[in-house]
Amino acid sequence: MRNSGKNTCMKTEINSKTNSAINPKANLAPSLKETLVNFTQLHSNTGDIVTKFATVAGRELCILTCECMVNTMTVSTLLFPPLTALDLRAAEEFGEKPPSPTELMSAIEGKLMVAVEQNVAKTYEDLSLFFMSGFAIILVDGVDYALAIGAQGFANRGIQRPLIHENLRGSCEGFSEVLRFNIASVRRRVRSPRFITKITRVGKYAKTDVAILYFDDKVNKDMLAEVERRIEELPLQLILETGYIEPFLQNEGNSIFTQIGFTDRPDNLAAKLLDGRIAIMVEGTPFALFLPMLFMEHFQTMDDYSELSVYTSFIRVVKYLAFFICVLLPGFFVAATSFHPELFPPDILFNIITAEQKTPFAILTECVIVMVIFEIMREAGLRLPSVVGHAVSIVGGLVLGDIVISVGLISAPIVLIVAFSTIAAFVVPDLFPSITIMRILFVIAGGFFGLFGLTVVGAMFLFKVCSMSAYGVPFMAPLAPFTWRGMRDFFIRFTWHRLVKDDINLSTLKGVSNK
Description:
Elements: E1 2-3, E2 10-11, H1 32-42, E3 49-56, E4 59-66, H2 72-88, H3 90-94, H4 101-111, E5 118-121, H5 124-132, E6 135-140, E7 146-150, H6 179-187, E8 195-202, E9 208-215, H7 221-232, H8 246-249, E10 261-263, H9 266-274, E11 278-282, E12 288-291, H10 309-339, H11 346-356, H12 363-383, H13 386-406, H14 412-425, H15 432-467, E13 469-470, E14 473-474, H16 496-499
């Protein structure tokens, strides 16, 4: 392989001399120079195009790469030596007469074992996609198509502990930002030929890889077809996270609760797939979506199936209790103190009245103010660096909380009630956004209408969640409609001897429709 002088391993500086726009759907030109001119014009002469020109068997070729998107060591060790060897034995391969450009490309494509992943690009759109995906592209002068060799080597974050769903026992491996690595992490746990992955590109400009994962013998075919249709019809131009596509997969009207779950754990996603669910992964994010998600799954963790069933059942009951505390406690306190003081014992009522006499605001106003302050502190601690975030928590919890009570702006009972309910909300972190909205609505209803308002709002939420369904699966299953076999892993968890006796998945629950 002979280099062509000054153009060796340099950034492309070919400038287009024509003002006509290049059609991305057009086929590549046979001329190497024309192809490169059109390609650089299509990319507006971007500065990260790297080319290496060489001569093999008397024919000029070019290796086209995107800077920092390919592994240069892989290209140097897997691509250059075979091309050099082909140049040295050109006479043996093609005879004394130099090969035609098509013969040379066919030899490179069919006889050289350079990479497992090898594709053909026939249009400028295909060429651009492979170029921006980290492929090393071989162009031969006189051939109207290119050969894309998989040599990706962009920087990425290694495998680390899950960011959101921590556990005490089991795997400590979390997803990363590389889609193929995430799929491989799930494949390692489910070595079944029925485990299917489909990858499509979504987004007008970004062409982001989106993967659909499912078990062919467990998934509902109608649900799968609907999910594939919605993903294909996504109107987004750019997808940076799974949250971008989540609203398009969820039914309209489900604004408080979502029936689409997310996880950053491969083992958790593998368990969801075995239940008949569908998973969606997006390139560039360490979180995967799975659907549909049931209400009871917010109270389940991977540790539930590693501990004793008696202890797990106790913890799960505590989680349900924490959910009702964080949703109802502030609203009940505001309603009881404003309209039903007889519900408190005399000693507690006297202390509450004494504390409230020192504050200038009504109990409803105090509660709303404290909840807003807690949300501000939580958001500040979440967005700031960890060192500064701890300082915000200390200042907010100790200094700010003590001062507002000392000067008489907020009463101590209100701070205690809101703080305790906020801590209880972190027991079920996936429901925290829904809990925040519900808690505010219950406080407002209790402040204006007392226990009657709490009852009406509670009934509205209950009717709402019982009527919700996604892809034919009721949100409150197996509680509503009631499925006795499904209740063995709802409020309490039965032992593994009982759980493995019958295979329960989405299709076996009552009320599940195929539509």
